């Protein structure tokens, strides 16, 4: 009997729990609903695109989506002994307004053995018999009788179960508007020595189809000035670009030791 109950017990133990994709969702830094709405290219879709990926090499994965114009707005990472459906990740993507949800392939992490107490009612009945003899002028009279006593209680049995656990994860992306369309990093010490300056920002990624892409700005280019204004770092460049949205600008870059001027029409 207990063997037949075991699958039901396991289901009962994990039923009613919120999806791990919802429970363990963490927004990316600065990814408030207002910030997402201000930067996204279009409205949130009714049904997000679903893609799959291996959980390793997360930095390379983020860069691959950034190159396509998608920025991560949040993620769900958790370990569970319950099988999580892709539909749960899709529903969470709909809650946060994601354009794409990338579901990471589950990674088995081992099993945990436990037990579930099962309490069932018990009854016990005792039977008794007796006889009594009375003496009277007419002779002895004997009476016979029987009785029952029922006792109610409970008994507890422990059913062993094995729960198989896995790591689950999902990344949520939106298509973002880009004024220029580059991701930058600061100059390394070696680059500062080669350029003989501490000023500038290095392009580490160019987003497909953006003004930077169309102007043939390349990964590794060092942006040194915008409209003749020297760039101290990536933050300085961002401020100058925000002031010039929708305008044509002159971008000064150093590419393999050569100084180049590029004219770029920024997105509004």
Strand content: over 45%
Compute the number of strand runs: 11
Count of alpha/pi helices: 8
Radius of gyration: 36 Å
Structural class: alpha+beta
Largest sheet: number of strands, sense, barrel closure: 6 strands, antiparallel
Mean pLDDT: 87
Taken in chain order, the helices and strands follow as HHEHEHEHEEEHEHEEHEE
Global geometry: rod-shaped
Provide the helix percentage.
10-25%
- Whole-number count of domains: 3
Show the helix and strand layout.
Layout: H1 2-14, H2 20-23, E1 25-27, H3 33-39, E2 49-53, H4 58-67, E3 70-80, H5 86-96, E4 100-136, E5 139-175, E6 182-186, H6 189-195, E7 201-206, H7 211-214, E8 222-226, E9 229-230, H8 234-243, E10 248-255, E11 258-265
Parallel strand pairs: 2-4
Antiparallel strand pairs: 1-3, 3-5, 4-5, 6-7, 7-8, 8-9, 8-10, 10-11
In short:
The protein is an alpha+beta fold and 268 residues long. The chain contains eight helices and eleven strands. Mean pLDDT is 87; it is low at 8-16.
Question: Which features does this protein show?
Answer:
single chain; 268 residues; alpha+beta; Pdz3 Domain; 6-stranded antiparallel β-sheet; 5-stranded mixed β-sheet; 8 helices; 11 strands; 25% helix
């Amino acid at each position: 009997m207990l063997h037949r109950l075991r699958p039901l017990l396991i289901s009962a133990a994990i039923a009613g729990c919120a999806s791990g994709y919802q429970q363990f969702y963490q927004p990316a830094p600065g990814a408030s609903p207002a910030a997402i709405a201000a930067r996204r290219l279009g409205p949130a879709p009714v049904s997000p695109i679903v893609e799959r990926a291996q959980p390793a090499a997360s930095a390379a994965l983020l860069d691959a989506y950034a190159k396509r114009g998608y920025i991560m707005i949040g993620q769900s990472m958790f370990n569970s002994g319950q099988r999580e459906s892709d539909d749960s990740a899709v529903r969470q993507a709909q809650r946060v307004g994601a354009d794409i949800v990338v579901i990471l392939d589950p990674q088995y992490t081992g099993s945990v053995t436990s037990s579930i107490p099962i309490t069932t009612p018990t009854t016990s009945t005792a039977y008794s018999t007796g006889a009594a003899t009375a003496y009277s002028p007419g002779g002895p009279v004997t009476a016979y009788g029987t009785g029952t006593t029922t006792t109610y209680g409970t008994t507890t049995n422990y059913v062993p179960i094995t729960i198989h656990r896995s790591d689950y994860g999902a990344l949520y992306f939106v298509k973002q508007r880009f004024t220029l369309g580059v991701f930058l990093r600061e100059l390394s010490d070696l680059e500062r020595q080669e350029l003989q300056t501490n000023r500038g920002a290095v392009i580490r990624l160019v987003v497909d189809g953006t003004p930077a892409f169309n102007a043939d700005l390349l990964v590794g280019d060092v942006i040194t000035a915008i409209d003749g204004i020297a760039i101290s770092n990536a933050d300085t460049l961002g401020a100058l670009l925000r002031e010039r949205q929708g305008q044509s600008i002159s971008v000064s870059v150093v590419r393999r030791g050569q100084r180049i001027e590029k004219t770029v029409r920024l997105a509004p």
